[in-house]
Amino acid sequence: MSWFNTILFRPRTGVLFAIGGGGALARYRFKSSSNSDAPLNPHSFTPYTLVDKQEVSSTSAIFTLRNLKIEKEAESLKEVWKRSVWSVQVKQPQLQIARAYTPLPNTSLPSDPGHHGGDKEQLGDIRLLIRQEEGGEVSTYLHGLPDKATIDLRGPNIELELPHDIKEVMFLAGGTGIAPAMQIAQAMSRRTGSRMHILWANRRREECIGGLDDTGDGTELVRSNGGRWRSLLGLGQPAAEQTLVETRSAKGKGVIVQELDLLKGQSRAQTRGLHVHYFVDEEKKLMKPGDVARRLGLEETETERGSRLILVSGPDGFIEHWAGKKLWIGGREVQGPLGGVLGQMDLKGWSVYKL
Ligand SMILES: Cc1cc2nc3c(=O)[nH]c(=O)nc-3n(C[C@H](O)[C@H](O)[C@H](O)COP(=O)(O)OP(=O)(O)OC[C@H]3O[C@@H](n4cnc5c(N)ncnc54)[C@H](O)[C@@H]3O)c2cc1C
Description:
Bound molecules: flavin-adenine dinucleotide
Number of domains: 2
GO molecular function, one term: oxidoreductase activity
Oligomer: single chain
Strand order of the largest sheet: 6-5-8-3-4-7
Order of helices and strands: EEEEHEEEHEEHEHHHHEHHEHEEHE
Domain FAD-binding FR-type: 43-163
Family: Belongs to the flavoprotein pyridine nucleotide cytochrome reductase family.
Number of strands: 15
Organism: Amniculicola lignicola CBS 123094
Binding site for FAD: 99, 101, 129, 138-139
């Protein structure tokens, strides 16, 4: 499902009232209200408490939501974490609208990566990376909520199940499209002999501070962006950047970059690795067809068994550019023909899926 301007509501769970123009906003009245007794489920909204909000950049943050009915929930989500890209719907109660967000895997407990390590109460936590869209109804509402606010969630909604014989994934992510890439990385870390490349594009470096190409050289990056880095390290930066500096680790890495590093570590044991490649518009380092082509692995594709999947996730424009538009047919969003840059390439037998 593409990132923006999509209708997020399953007809079975609500009555569609109206669909807006360019923004294609769906607005409807929910049949089911919050149900404080039910654990997370796709049919009714379950109240969670906002227990933490961690700045990632000046426009995005990781929201940690907690539900204390932990044991049931952990059980029902276990299978989903193992092989799926999945989302939850978050309700904006005043406007009676909802949007989908993609839970981040909890990287602190490698043996059971769907869940936090540590305290028992953290087992039911859901972490969402949410970017505040300018003029966006739900994301602006969520970013304005105080600590301990109640947030209603419904899900899981499965967006994709990994094929059982998956061997290799190349994930093209734009912006917060990194969240499903992290879900897949966590699932792939259990698949012996598998390999995954994430190609992550951001407009601004602040989203992926310290993220260096796996094949790159750190010194080079710092040298070529000296001015920007100096400003982020504390020389007369504006308030928003000051906060970011505080939330970065001593190693100078952004929160998501650190989590990607942890996922890489998790993958090392059984797989042929998770490789992350960073692209930043403002540094004129753009993702190009050659970046994909060189990772298609000609010889291996011909000799090794197993599925190879290119996943594309991010804003509508990003998906359209790389793989062509998704279509709406009979009230359902479907893949549509393969177009865009990937549609022009010889993909050597790899399949493409637009998220
Ligand atoms: C399966 C799925 C998973 C997702 N996961 C994530 C995630 O993990 N993190 C994340 O941040 N996002 C995610 N999204 C996107 C998210 O669901 C929302 O679309 C996003 O937060 C914007 O919602 P909003 O209500 O804030 O903005 P909206 O109110 O929907 O507006 C979106 C943008 O369109 C503009 N707009 C609104 N109406 C119009 C109009 N009539 N004409 C022109 N422009 C208009 C707004 O100004 C704004 O910039 C996901 C989407 C899907 C489908």
